[in-house]
Specification:
alpha+beta, CBS-domain, two-stranded antiparallel ribbon
Length: 146
């Protein structure tokens, strides 16, 4: 594995994003339909506003279940929640020109699993630990170990 390889070469470029006003129900549906664990929150112009992870989503559902006067109240509150209410604001980002090694260091130091890739303010991709593993196991070093 070449740690100096550019993130642009391994990042996921086709993303499903939501707007800050997207309802929790819609986000839940997206997570149910897809195997990914992170959804970028962007403006209509593609500017990154935050990230919603499955963990964020489950945490807010759990907190709601504890702070409840009953299922009717919980359902009403849940239906009123928007991405902006539980997204991670100002997530750490990388650029397409940053190295795979930098992304790996950030993942290890922060226990992150996804990093938005931005050019200026615009979201252009996402690099995940899965992307990094897929890249690592395509390397000649991995081939010699097996």
């Amino acid at each position: 594995m070449d740690p100096n390889k550019r993130i642009a070469e391994i990042m996921t470029k086709t993303l499903i994003c939501v707007r800050p006003e997207e309802k929790a129900n819609t986000i839940q549906d997206i997570f149910r339909k897809h195997s990914f664990h992170h959804i970028p929150v962007t403006t209509a112009g593609g500017e990154l506003m935050g990230m919603v992870s499955k963990s964020d989503f489950h945490r807010i559902s759990y907190i709601l279940s504890l702070d409840s006067s009953g299922p009717t109240w919980s359902k009403k509150v849940y239906q009123s929640l928007e991405a902006r209410d539980f997204m991670t604001k100002y997530p750490l980002t990388v650029t397409p020109e940053d190295s795979v090694g930098l992304a790996a260091d950030i993942f290890l130091a922060n226990k992150f699993h996804a990093l938005p890739v931005v050019e200026g303010e615009e979201l252009v991709g996402l690099v995940t630990t899965h992307d990094l593993l897929a890249y690592s196991f395509q390397s000649p070093i991995a081939d010699t170990i097996n």
